[in-house]
């Protein structure tokens, strides 16, 4: 598959899921029977610890103090006006699972919703086993708190990500577990992210909505605090993903310090426990790893697209005759 043709297909059409639901005898209606992916995070980010943690630049603290107010300060939402109440199509079992996971709470008597968000699920057929993912789209908040409320956010470009393969022979790639669910909303802020069930009961989010415009800003600010320490490795941050590149011992030392800071901040990772052993850290320091959809070999200095993505592109190209524009 040529690069130009692959990119054209990938951007013009959404990738099909694997396994193909049609081959499984499933239709879109059957997606409602898939289990809801809504696991409890276990703890929330400690905002006080984040304010007190040592950093290499005071600018990072300023960035954090500004960003975290989207979770704690209801005054940030002063321009938001209550819109039309939105009822979710989620089942009672789905809502109960979200409450058990600590991401949703029912409004108490006397609490008034300030704004509503659209809460729904999308199927993820490519997962094994297939599942549904919860999506919270705060349309009212996003419309009122537009681009003028966003701070400039510098993320690594694709060229920089690939070029970093020459910066060392060893790498460790980590990502946060259900990152946005780890940012607790204050009760006052949560009332700007409400929804209703089919019976008319009102609920509010107790954790940050991934669909909020400012969510990436908040998450990135925290990850930069966690990575702000003395080290001799290259560190790349892409929201909830972080990559360490350098010598083997340098990466091990950096990952060990990073995990200690994450433990102080209350930040949970997928690959490592809160207080990993030396053997656990050593196991995640490798010479070939997947980072943001590309597999990079830091010993041979090569970069290739994940086979899973290539398979999806080839499947799309083989089905191109079935599409009509």
Write down the Rg.
21 Å
Spatial order of strands in the largest sheet: 1-4-3
What overall geometry do the principal axes of the alpha carbons give? globular
Q: Main β-sheet: number of strands, strand sense, barrel status?
A: 3 strands, mixed
Report the structural category: alpha+beta
Q: How much strand?
A: 15-25%
Gap between N and C termini: 22 Å
In DSSP terms (H or I, runs of 4 or more residues), the helix count works out at: 11
- List the secondary-structure elements in sequence, H or E: HEHHHEEEHHEHEEHEEHHEEEH
> Uncertain regions: pLDDT < 50 for 5+ in a row?
1-29
Q: How many DSSP-defined strands?
A: 12
Mean pLDDT: 85
In which range does the helix fraction lie?
Answer: 25-40%
Describe the structure.
With 325 residues, the protein is α+β, with helices and mostly antiparallel strands. 33% of the residues lie in helices and 17% in strands. It is built from 11 helices and 12 strands. The chain has helices at 3-12, 47-52, 58-72, 92-101, 139-144, 158-163, 187-190, 215-226, 248-265, 278-284, 307-318; strands at residues 36-37, 104-106, 118-124, 131-137, 170-175, 194-196, 202-205, 234-238, 241-246, 288-291, 294-297, 302-305. The strands form 4 sheets. A 3-stranded mixed β-sheet has the order 1-4-3, with no helix packed on it. Helix 1 crosses helix 11 (307-318) and helix 3 (58-72) crosses helix 8. The longest helix has 18 residues, at 248-265. It is globular. The two termini are 22 Å apart.
